[in-house]
Structure formats: structure tokens, C-alpha cells
């Protein structure tokens, strides 16, 4: 015969695996609403019930907000960790690289914006992404073109050296199709970027998940089918990146984003 304490513990574990605190609070709110409907005419009972209802509702909202924030932060650390791994394994812990994951903008799905960003010595994946003002529509710039026509391999665009900001803006408008409104949002960091590597991720239903953009700054970049040669100004610390290895690492990030999407769907079902 099972002891009552052990049985109660097993029941508690069973419920913990299947219900969250916010769901339990939602049930409490429902019960309070029923009591209010039944006892609404009795002010001595109704007023404490109303106060309890609002307190629990605010508590539930706070917990939901914190849970979403924690999930967002955790996913950022995972993505930044993968970018850091790629930078260490293939780019010799280079300071010339900056990795950005673009995703659809909330409330403006016709644009993609930086969601997470990694750079050696940066301020963190979320803070660095939030500091950016860049946004792209389909077909706009290197990033927008990679979004519009997802490729089965990495897209590599070599950029010329820009003698001034006005020359950069003219090139982005005339050659890359960036609107005059959006070209003003391009950060000064891009003035010295000499190549951009892009890849759009699709889920198992071929729907857009996100887009990786790798900026290579302050170095001559010579890509071919097999490798990407990166030659810094001093020429002494030049190195070569195997294109196939880079593609495999980038594809691994796509699998991670797909799992994020699946867990997001599960979280919505539970809400």
C-alpha cells in the first residue's frame, strides 16, 4: 500500500509536468469570476473578490512577461554561442567579423530587423541587436535579396572600399536597391565592411525562419567555390575559411531556429 505522502508527491510531480503557474492562476481567476457572478450583489464579499481578482491577474501577467523574456534571453545566448563557435573554429576568433540573425519585425512583417547579434568584445546578443536601426524589405539590399530568394548555398557579396559616407550611400541606393529612407539607418560600422555572407533559413514547411548576415570588416575578401580568403590590412594574419565547413555550421543554426519555432508553438498552445 502506498503511503499518502508519497502519493501526494507523485500527484504534485504529475501536475508540475503538465501545468504552469500561470495556468494555475488562470484557473483561480476563473473561480473568482464565478464567485463574483454568484455573490456580486453582496458588497462585503464582492469587493475583496474584485481586489483579489486584480492582484492575481497582475501577478499572472508579470509571470507571463518574465517567462517570455527569459525564453527570449536564453535563445539569444544559444544563437550567440553558435556564432561564437563559428568565429573561433573557422575565423580564428577574428575581430573582423560580426554575425547577425535577422527576423521578421513585430507588427511590421514586411521588414526584417536584427534580432540577435554577436561580435567579439560586444555588449551581448540582445543589446547589440537593439542598438541597430537597420531594417530591410524583400529585395532591398544584400540582406533583402537573400530574404526574397532563399538560396541553397551561402550568398557572398564583396563590397568596394568606400572613400566617404556619401559614396557608400550612393552605392547602396544605386547598386543594391536600398531606399533613401533606409540607407540613412545603415550604421557607420558598415563603412568599412568589405564582404557580407548571407543565408536565409526555412523551416520544414519551407517557411521563413530568419536570415544570417555575416559582415567582414577591414579586410580584403576573396571568395571562391572552395574557400573564403580573408586578408587583413597588415597581410600577416591572413587566413582561409573552408566554404563547405562554414555552410555546415550555418545550416546547424537553421535546425536550432526550427526547434525554437516548434517550442514557441507549444508554448502558445499551453497559454
Explain what the structure shows.
The protein is an alpha+beta fold and 271 residues long. The strands form two sheets. It has a five-stranded antiparallel beta sheet with strand order 2-1-5-4-3, sandwiched between helices. Strands 6-7-8 form a three-stranded antiparallel beta sheet. The protein contains eight helices and eight strands, in the order αααββααβααβββββα. The chain has helices at 4-18, 21-39, 43-90, 125-130, 141-148, 165-174, 180-183, 243-270; strands at 97-105, 108-118, 155-158, 193-202, 208-217, 220-223, 227-231, 239-242. The chain folds into two domains: 4-66; 75-270, Beta-Lactamase, CATH 3.30.450. Helices cover 51% and strands 21% of the residues.
What's a concise summary of this model?
Helices cover 51% and strands 21% of the residues. It contains eight helices and eight strands; from the N terminus they run H-H-H-E-E-H-H-E-H-H-E-E-E-E-E-H.
Amino acid at each position: 500500500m502506498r503511503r499518502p505522502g508519497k502519493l501526494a508527491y507523485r500527484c504534485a510531480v504529475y501536475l508540475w509536468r503538465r501545468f504552469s503557474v500561470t495556468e494555475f492562476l488562470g484557473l483561480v481567476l476563473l473561480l473568482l469570476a464565478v464567485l463574483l457572478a454568484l455573490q456580486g450583489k453582496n458588497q462585503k464579499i464582492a469587493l475583496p473578490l474584485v481586489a483579489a481578482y486584480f492582484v492575481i491577474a497582475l501577478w499572472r501577467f508579470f509571470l507571463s512577461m518574465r517567462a517570455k523574456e527569459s525564453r527570449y534571453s536564453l535563445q539569444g545566448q544559444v544563437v550567440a554561442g553558435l556564432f561564437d563557435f563559428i568565429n573561433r573554429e573557422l575565423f580564428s576568433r577574428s575581430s573582423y567579423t560580426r554575425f547577425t540573425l535577422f527576423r521578421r519585425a513585430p507588427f511590421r512583417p514586411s521588414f526584417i530587423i536584427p534580432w540577435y547579434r554577436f561580435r567579439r568584445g560586444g555588449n551581448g546578443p540582445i543589446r547589440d541587436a537593439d542598438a541597430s536601426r537597420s531594417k530591410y524589405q524583400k529585395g532591398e539590399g544584400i540582406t533583402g535579396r537573400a530574404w526574397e530568394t532563399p538560396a541553397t548555398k551561402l550568398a557572398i557579396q564583396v563590397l568596394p572600399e568606400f572613400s566617404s559616407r556619401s559614396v557608400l550611400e550612393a552605392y547602396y541606393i544605386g547598386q543594391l536597391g536600398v531606399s533613401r529612407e533606409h540607407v540613412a539607418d545603415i550604421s557607420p560600422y558598415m563603412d568599412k565592411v568589405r564582404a557580407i555572407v548571407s543565408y536565409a533559413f526555412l523551416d520544414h514547411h519551407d517557411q521563413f525562419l530568419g536570415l544570417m548576415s555575416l559582415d567582414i570588416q577591414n579586410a580584403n575578401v576573396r571568395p571562391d567555390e572552395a574557400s573564403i580568403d580573408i586578408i587583413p590590412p597588415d597581410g600577416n594574419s591572413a587566413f582561409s575559411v573552408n566554404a563547405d565547413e562554414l555552410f555546415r555550421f550555418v545550416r546547424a543554426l537553421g535546425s536550432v531556429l526550427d526547434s525554437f519555432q516548434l517550442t514557441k508553438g507549444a508554448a502558445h498552445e499551453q497559454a
